[in-house]
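Summary for the steering committee. The consortium agreed at its last meeting that each partner would contribute one worked example illustrating the joint modelling workflow. Our contribution is presented below. We chose a case with several input lines so that the handling of multiple components could be demonstrated. No manual editing was applied between input and output; the record is shown as generated.
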Amino acid sequence: MALALTIAFAAVVGRAGPLEILFFVLIGGALYELNRQIISTEMYDIGGSNTIFMFGGLMGTVVAFFLAFTKQKD
Amino acid sequence: MIGAAFFWVFYPCIFLDVPFTGSIASTDTTPFLAENGMISAYWAISTCVVTTLALGAVIHGRIRIKDLMYGVFAGAAMIGTSAPLIYSPTTAIVLGMIAGLLQPIFNLIEERMAKSKAYFSTCVPFVFGIQGLLGSLACGVIRAIRDNTTVFNYSLDPFPFRWDVAGEFFRACFISFGIALGAGAVVGFFVWIVSAQ
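What follows is the complete predicted structure of the assembly.
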């Protein structure tokens, strides 16, 4: 979970504030565990290419796009 | 760069979590070994870094620190799922070489995209998203080839490939892809609510 959230944080670093990072980590950690439980019934993912890297990268990218479109109002 | 070096050294220790007894799935009768996964991960990461540096030097005419950084993560994301299943260095080298051949092209695309305001230039969707998806699809292919629960007639079919096993894995990979995008939408919605205050 730490590696996935670090990867996702790399996509939003410099753009999100501390409170946004707090909510990002809390909800993102819960959703990471949901994804891992679902995937572990279908495949055995020890190195985390699916549950860690792909989840972290795609989640961070989508959140970065959300932040980019909301911060344009300022 | 320091983070990439630490990742290179300490990432294969994640394979120490492999259980030693019993088969993991019904399609695997060969035992999983922690050392197997660690050695495969080192092979793939080293090959990916060398290939990325070489191809980046061919494209740009010089060695860039960006290729050296992202090659480590690309190799790790490519080998992650299938490392305990690989029993020969050749397979790990081929997987790392595929990731290393793709990564300079992704760096070019990322430098084009970094000019827009909506994208922050850390190469996260390419080096983790796409390479991770390719790595989990490669695990499906390897399991479909290495499946030894069925006795094949090699005279009729010299290269046996279990399409049903591969299909289950590909379905799981795309389910995870959709869950990741949906989780990004949910987290982005909550972050948007927080940032709107």
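Chain A touches chain B through 53 residues (CB under 8 Å). The first helix of chain A runs from residue 2 to 12.
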